[in-house]
Amino acid sequence: MAIERLHGNLSEHTSLHVGGGAKELVRVSTEQELIDLVLDLDRRDEPVLILGGGSNVVCSDSEFRGTVIIISTQGIDWVGNCAVVAAGESWDEFVRNAIEQGFGELAPLSGIPGSMGATPIQNIGAYGVELAEFIDHVDVLDRKSGARRSLTPIECEFEYRDSTFKKNPNRYVVLAVKLKLNKTIEIPIKYLQLANVMNQGVGTTANALSVRDQVLQLRATKSMLLDPLDTESNSTGSFFVNPIVRDVDIPQGCPNYPLAVGDPRVKTHMKVSAAWLIENAGIIKGFHLGSEDSGIRVSRNHSLAITNIDRGSTQEVIKLASYIRQQVFDAYGIELVVEPVLINCELDKLGVS
């Protein structure tokens, strides 16, 4: 059967391990079954939640009063220097596969959890590389028209950790992603932290396999690799994105980074370190609200991650994230933006002190 009916709570299908039940919970393994199911549910005006790896989502403690669809479609088709990858494929497994095929440019994006279908939604990025650089098109089901479409990068409206898919969360279902890569195993090092651990300078080149190894090690030290033996990795990764602020508003001493070439704000704005803002607003690694045995806390290994070490709730996650955001706003007047998708929950509104 292509459609498998599942049981249990969403906490069992998300990396943060929070979330209540669902009216219906199913796993779909073929593209046509996925399309037919979504269109049928839309015709019946039934709420739909699409999940892949569940690594970048925070679901409410309450029951989802509709159908949750976990996409498990598979398939990687290589034609020349292009790969068409089904939405249910593991992102990191694809990166490993690409490097084995001699396409090394994705190595800095190694270790990012989740499925291929989620990657264009967030326009994932790490260590100076963003997914949008490599996308040829994204195949989607347009729920508004009921048609299958191929969206160009321009139509995807890619920005820093953003896209049309994130701006219009109920319109598109990602079916597959076509990537266009260069056949090279020697790739440039664009990020200072990565350059430092590789003992070389920014702008130099390195073997993609070595880059992948170093990136995986870096992510492991930050508990940014999913590991059932490491409770610190029970998270969505970075909970907040690096804010984009005007040059004149950068706090003194805060690390900052240029925007991507082509961004209309590139001459007047910079990205600033959300981790620095959080730590300098008084939120240290391991910080928690409430008792010492609280299940939800800031990761002990990365101040940008909120972790669930022991059966914490979404309510606790929202409370802690709201507190962090308020502390940063009070200290620097900068509003942190949440990176994961919030399902039937939201952070508290910022207060003005």
Keywords, please?
about 350 residues; alpha+beta; Uridine Diphospho-n-acetylenolpyruvylglucosamine Reductase, domain 2; Uridine Diphospho-n-acetylenolpyruvylglucosamine Reductase, domain 3; Uridine Diphospho-n-acetylenolpyruvylglucosamine Reductase, domain 1; 4-stranded mixed sheet; 9 helices
Describe this structure in words.
By secondary structure, this protein is an alpha+beta fold. It folds into three domains: 3-71, 2-Layer Sandwich (Uridine Diphospho-n-acetylenolpyruvylglucosamine Reductase, domain 2), CATH 3.30.43.10; 77-186, 2-Layer Sandwich (Uridine Diphospho-n-acetylenolpyruvylglucosamine Reductase, domain 3), CATH 3.30.465.10; 231-343, Uridine Diphospho-n-acetylenolpyruvylglucosamine Reductase, domain 1 (Alpha-Beta Complex), CATH 3.90.78.10. It is built from nine helices and 20 strands. It has helices spanning 31-43, 91-100, 119-122, 153-156, 164-167, 192-197, 208-221, 274-280, 314-332, and strands at residues 3-5, 22-28, 48-51, 57-59, 64-71, 76-79, 82-86, 125-126, 129-130, 135-142, 147-151, 172-180, 186-188, 205-207, 244-246, 256-257, 269-272, 296-298, 306-308, 341-343. β6 and β7 (82-86) form a beta hairpin. It is globular, with a radius of gyration of 20 Å.
